[in-house]
Amino acid sequence: MPSEAQRRAVAPELATVVQKLRDAKNVLVLSGAGVSAESNVPTFRGEGGWWRSLNPAELATYSAFQRDPRLVWEWYDYRRGLIANASPNPAHRALAGLEAPAREVFIITQNVDDLHERAGSRRVVHIHGSIWRLTCLADGKTYEDRRVPLPGLPPTCACGALLRPDVVWIGESLPAASCAQVDDYFHESWIDVALVIGTEATFSYIGDWALRAKRSGALLVEINPNPTVLTPYVDVKLQGKAGAILGEINKRL
Ligand code: APR
């Protein structure tokens, strides 16, 4: 629960964001691992992100997978277990609750979990893929597989080839279909408010989309307990955890 001092500190800014959201027709959300942190899904670069004393940034690469596909799959199988047992938290629910007949909410998420959808959000683009899909390394076909744990690691395709998680690893390009959805959204929508929530914004495309929304007239808001590379550029910084802050916003809408 945020302290009284924290509540008072964010109050004026919160009021600005609430007012803007009340009148908004189009809300863009850029979400990252911090949004799922309160569902006990560890972030990448924060506390609890390391697995077996291995840095996720060293596991989430194609070269790590080539070196030891079983180890990388053991990590994804562990994350699939965490996500299968996780539930949407107040942040996910508040974002789903923002959707209204006169207010469209479009979520671009780096998260490979499905907690936004499980909370009821209808327009979600996963730019880093999904932990529930597997891709055959031979023919590139993708399958949905929600079995936890996966029987036999590393999993193989019916054709005998290795399967990889259908996620975007560090250094890999984004799925063309997701980028096209994002581009279409920017072309079709006049964005009133852009919420950047729970992300370090490590990848330049996150900053690009945030600043593109700001240049098109949106109020750019960051919700994060810590400063990020984007903080100097936002219109409003709401410092704190997403669950508490979005819960407060929803209460006042
Ligand atoms: N509420 C809001 N923000 C939070 C919370 C919370 N409860 N807890 C942590 N954060 C913030 C942290 O301060 C940090 O800025 O979430 C951010 C998490 O940063 P990262 O772990 O780097 O996650 P993200 O920015 O989403 O990058 C993850 O990087 O490795 C790739 O593909 C991988 O999608 C993944 C992406």
Architecture overview:
Helix 6 packs parallel to helix 10. The protein has ten helices and nine strands. The longest helix has 20 residues, at 4-23. Helix 9 (204-215) links the parallel strand 7 (193-197) and strand 8 (219-223). The chain has 253 residues and is of the alpha/beta class. It has helices spanning 4-23, 33-37, 56-59, 62-67, 69-85, 90-98, 115-119, 176-188, 204-215, 242-252; strands at 26-31, 104-109, 124-126, 129-136, 142-144, 163-167, 193-197, 219-223, 236-238. The mean pLDDT is 94. It is globular and about 55 Å long. It binds adenosine-5-diphosphoribose. Adenosine-5-diphosphoribose binds next to helix 2. The site of adenosine-5-diphosphoribose (APR) has 25 residues, from helix 2.
Structure, briefly:
By secondary structure, the protein is an alpha/beta fold.
Give the fraction of residues assigned to helices: 40-55%
Structural class: alpha/beta
- The neighbouring-strand order within the major sheet is 3-2-1-7-8-9
Radius of gyration: 19 Å
Put simply, the count of helices is 10
Ligands bound here? adenosine-5-diphosphoribose
Beta content comes to: 15-25%
Mean pLDDT across residues:
94
Any descriptors?
single chain, 253 residues, alpha/beta, 6-stranded parallel β-sheet, 3-stranded antiparallel β-sheet, 10 helices, 9 strands, binds adenosine-5-diphosphoribose
Q: What is the secondary structure topology, with strand pairs?
A:
Blueprint: H1 4-23, E1 26-31, H2 33-37, H3 56-59, H4 62-67, H5 69-85, H6 90-98, E2 104-109, H7 115-119, E3 124-126, E4 129-136, E5 142-144, E6 163-167, H8 176-188, E7 193-197, H9 204-215, E8 219-223, E9 236-238, H10 242-252
Bound molecules: adenosine-5-diphosphoribose (APR).
Residues 32-34, 37-38, 43-46, 57, 60, 110, 128, 170, 198-200, 202, 223-226, 228, 241-242 line the site of adenosine-5-diphosphoribose.
